[in-house]
Design brief:
The chain is mostly helical. Helices cover 72% and strands 0% of the residues.
């Protein structure tokens, strides 16, 4: 380990994978530009979908003054952060898992496993979607505007907690979705998993406190939708129990460990298309 804290072999490997990741991004962007109209249409539709979410929130608050103690402006914050969460998942995660599922069903996974690259990296980081970028920018500005309307005392510490919880939530759900997609090794006719994914993330638009007892524990520790928006927004509003950051780190490590174990188990029991 002479010459630095990180061994040269690890540094070289990291640079190799970063270079691959950049090539994948460039390739997907060039392919996306071949179908510009499709990109424009889906970008517009993303805004339409979010407008429907805002309308639903307004309709609900036309009948009630709060949801589990959360006011209209705070629930709009939840909707905004959930939208960002979903956009990041679709940009970096979902498309890869959809193609991963197809690779198993069509018998093309063999070609991935034969490549001199970590197979999990290849099935998890090969594809990108680009119709969500404008909405990510819009929702980021909307988030700041909503916080300004709430007169929240924002500090660097609260923003760091927010970003940490947000991206830990992304990592948790990536591993959860990866495990669910890996079941295609046995149940090869599972379709439309993305609809299940979207349904799970949609639960995050409501504060987790609408659930009671065991249901609340389930949505914090088992299917941790509380880390989609509720806890990140609480971090911004200065209401977060800081122990939840430790919980998020433990859950992220646990889900990664379980997903890697399950992936290795699935590969050991994989019957290749050529066998």
């Amino acid at each position: 380990m002479a010459g630095g804290l990180i061994p040269p072999s690890v540094t070289k490997n990291m640079k190799r994978y970063l270079k691959l990741y950049c090539h994948f991004f460039k390739n997907c962007w060039m392919r996306e530009l071949e179908f510009r109209l499709n990109l424009i249409i889906w970008t517009v539709m993303d805004f339409v979908f979010f407008a429907m979410v805002i309308i639903s929130v307004e309709l609900i608050f036309g009948q009630v003054s709060s949801i589990a103690g959360w006011r209209r402006e705070e629930v709009l914050l939840l909707a905004c952060v959930t939208g960002l969460f979903n956009d990041f998942l679709w940009t970096f995660v979902h498309l890869n898992l959809l193609f991963f599922s197809d690779l198993i069903r069509q018998g093309n996974l063999d070609f991935v496993l034969l490549k001199p690259v970590n197979s999990r990296f290849l099935v998890s980081a090969r594809y990108f979607e680009f119709d969500h970028w404008l909405r990510i920018i819009f929702l980021s500005f909307l988030l700041v505007k909503l916080l300004g309307g709430l007169s929240a005392e924002l500090t660097m510490f609260s923003w760091l907690n927010f970003l940490l919880l947000f991206f830990l939530g992304i990592f948790i759900f990536y591993n959860l979705y990866f495990m669910m997609t890996t079941t295609n090794f046995w149940f090869i006719r599972i379709f439309n998993l993305e609809d299940l994914f979207d349904s799970l993330t949609a639960v995050g638009r409501a504060p987790v406190y609408v659930f009671k007892g065991g249901a609340r524990l389930f949505f914090i520790y088992i299917i941790p939708v509380a880390f989609i928006a509720t806890f990140p927004v609480q971090a911004l509003l200065g209401r977060l129990d800081l122990r939840m950051i430790l919980v998020a780190i433990v859950l992220a490590l646990t889900f990664f460990y379980l997903s890697q174990k399950f992936w290795n188990f699935a590969l050991r029991h994989y019957s290749s298309a050529s066998s």
